[in-house]
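Crash report, auto-generated. Payload:
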Amino acid sequence: MILPTEINVLDISAAILLVATFGLIVRRGFSNWVHAYRYQTIVLAGIVALIALITDIWELYIVSALTFGIKAIVIPKILFYVTKKLDSPIKLETNPYISMKLSVIVSALLVAMSYFIFLQLNIESNEIIQVFLPVSFSLFFIGLFVIISRRKALNQMVGLLTIENGLFLFAVSLTHGFSLIIEIGLMADILLGVIISSILLFRMSKTFDSIDIKNLESLRDD
Amino acid sequence: MDELSFTGIIFGISQVLLLVSLSPLIVGIMRKTKAKSQKRIGSPIIQPYFDIIKLLRKDEVISEQSSWIFRCTPWINFVTAVSVAFFIPVSLIYSPFGVVGDILLVVGLFGLGKFFTILAGLDVASSFGGLGSSREIMFSALVEPALFITIFVIAIFYGGTNISTIVSSANEISFLAAPGVLFALIAFFIILMAETGKLPFDNQSTHLELTMIHEATILEYSGKSLALIEWSQAIKQIILLTLFVNIFIPWGIADSFSWSQIGFGVLLVIVKIISLGILIAFIEIRIAKWRLFRVVDLIAISIASSMIGVIFFFI
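Recovered output after restart:
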């Protein structure tokens, strides 16, 4: 399958994925993060379908559909449910460790860094790897950055899911997908992880009346 | 390019007159859209024209304490706005006067107008004026670097800072082939909202509130001067909208000097500007005015976005 070269579909989809990822950083509300994660995952599913179209591997279509079904529909549903049920009256990130404007700039630098790292890597590359590998790095770094710079536990979950998206994109672009059974196992793993951490979130909000992760430091057995 | 022929000059001047005369209409359409979506009837679309005519007939009150800066600021604003309009390609991919100025000159002329507005706000020594000036200078100091990085992104993708070059190569390759321009689009849109004083930055429909920015600097003006300032603000807005439309969605613009193409191009560009204005009005009604120090976040987004645009160029 040859795509038209004039319209640079690969680069544009990578750019849209980056824009969707930045939605995670620039917004403050709990439900905004979940929305951002959902958009990001929908774009990711589209990218996987695109890779399937280029490489002609039919399994990737199933993987793309699974990504869409589980990560863009089921997990956001769970997270929305969690957001709705939380007791805390203010559903906003009020004062993150690193301010919003600084974190936007830092994330842009992280994107630059991931492109730099990609240039240092000495791997045999084709066009898919060249376009999507740096983007997967930047998803990974931005997820990590979100985890360390925010206070609310829900954001940590979304950050973790972003890292997972980055790893998924890394694997798909580099190896064109694992075997289907592993893929399904991974999805189930993520689903379980989200459910368990939602339960933990509820317990945390019940015990401390907030989901600030600073409370976790006092969680000792004495 | 160097068609400084007689028809070229006539065409360029009529293009400028078109922009200048259409600019209050866009303001009216945006106000009407906002009113309609808030279930108000709102003033008619051509109300800004009536405002300007009425203000032109009125007498002025000028403080005795004010200096020449206060009196010449409206003229400087108007003249810079109109002279910028000469460099903007509207319906043709190049402007007949485009050889003498590029996009940096456009930024510079707008900056000159803004500088004098700020001075005039300080000049009459009213407390509101000083407040507005300090805020306006803070925003322009923050928006300027974002604007320059955005311009550089556009320039490296489209090969030059001359607006005619930018628009003609945008018409040829468009951002579908250069995805980095997508990031410049986001950055430029935020800057557009900031420069025209749209809602998360500034609310132009309020008077005598502590939140106003641009309105505070021109609070002392009345009569003809106010009419000139409002008009030049409208011209600035339509110029920025035209730039946005022609750099990022230039499809349908005339690429050679033939009357049928130009007529089609004029119609299309007007439709595009009006729909962009309606889009901005809809964005405006969805959000409230932000806290002054949170607005900086948006400018940070714009800077970051254009930085990623630069990265995309080198890959």
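Post-recovery validation: The interface with chain A takes residues 176-180, 182-183, 186, 294, 296-297, 299-301, 303-305, 307-308, 311-312, 314-315 of chain B (CB under 8 Å).
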